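We were asked to recover a plausible sequence for a given structure. The inputs and outputs are reproduced exactly as logged, with field labels preserved.

PROBLEM: sequence recovery
POSITIONS: 273
GIVEN STRUCTURE:
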């Protein structure tokens, strides 16, 4: 460190041992008090990431926690449909307000801001990432015990923006049985590691079908490799979700809050304890 050091690293171009690493974390809105933030990620689309996000939030709300969902999947938002939300989010001088679900889960999604639910979002990456950041900084979330962030699939702009801008406590990775035997999950695990975000759990969606006649589990996509992959990456929390027509129907009807199932109970209880 030079004797002439002003201790103001922002105005100094010299590289020295005293230079402090500037945090990229953004402050939430002054009206937001969020205790825990959990990201729900996947290596590719169509594996049930939004479903897992919704189920975790519903279960947390049922358990007495104040839950919220930040829908970061800007170009493919499905959270409002699963909760049957069709009203537009309201704004005031202080900021933007999330839309409450029937049971009080606070939701913010781009679909709650567009004039029509079917309006496409034809934006480039930086604009999409900026919108997600504003969902954190400009939305008045209030008191939230646990926020679940529904990430877009992959390892692009938005996941990077979220990991750098939002104090994420950990992520849950969602995969299908086919993904678990490939390198897709490993990419998601490695990205979390690069960003120093712990992987809290691994969910295998579409893991099996329960025969309606005998109750036997049928592995339509082959035998599960969940435990094997979890051991490889030292992930202690795992869960398996079945292919359930009733669950799919509840999502389509906007009635996800009425679902009945205990597949994710242990994961939620361990994460929130």
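RECOVERED SEQUENCE:
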């Amino acid at each position: 460190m030079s004797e002439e050091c002003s201790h103001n690293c922002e105005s100094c171009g010299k590289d020295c041992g005293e230079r402090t690493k500037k945090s990229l974390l953004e402050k939430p809105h002054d009206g937001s008090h969020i205790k825990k933030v959990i990201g729900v990620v996947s290596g590719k689309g169509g594996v049930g990431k939004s479903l897992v996000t919704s189920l975790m939030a519903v279960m947390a709300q049922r358990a007495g926690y104040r839950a919220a969902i930040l829908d970061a999947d800007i170009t493919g938002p499905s959270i409002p449909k699963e909760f049957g939300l069709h009203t537009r989010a309201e704004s005031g001088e202080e900021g933007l307000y999330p839309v409450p679900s029937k049971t009080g889960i606070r939701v913010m999604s781009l679909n709650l801001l567009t004039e029509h639910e079917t309006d496409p979002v034809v934006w480039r990456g930086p604009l999409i990432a900026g919108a997600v950041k504003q969902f954190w900084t400009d939305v008045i979330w209030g008191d939230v015990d646990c926020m679940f962030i529904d990430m877009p699939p992959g390892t692009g702009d938005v996941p990077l923006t979220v990991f750098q801008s939002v104090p994420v406590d950990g992520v849950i990775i969602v995969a299908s049985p086919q993904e678990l035997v490939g390198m897709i999950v490993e990419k998601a695990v490695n990205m979390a590691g690069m960003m120093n975000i712990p992987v809290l759990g691994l969910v295998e969606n579409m893991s099996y079908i329960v025969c309606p006649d005998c109750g036997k589990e049928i592995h339509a996509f082959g035998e599960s490799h969940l435990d094997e992959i979890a051991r490889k990456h030292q992930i202690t929390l795992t869960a398996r979700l079945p292919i359930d027509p009733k669950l799919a129907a509840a999502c389509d009807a906007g009635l996800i809050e009425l679902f009945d199932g205990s597949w994710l109970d242990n994961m939620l209880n361990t994460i929130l304890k």
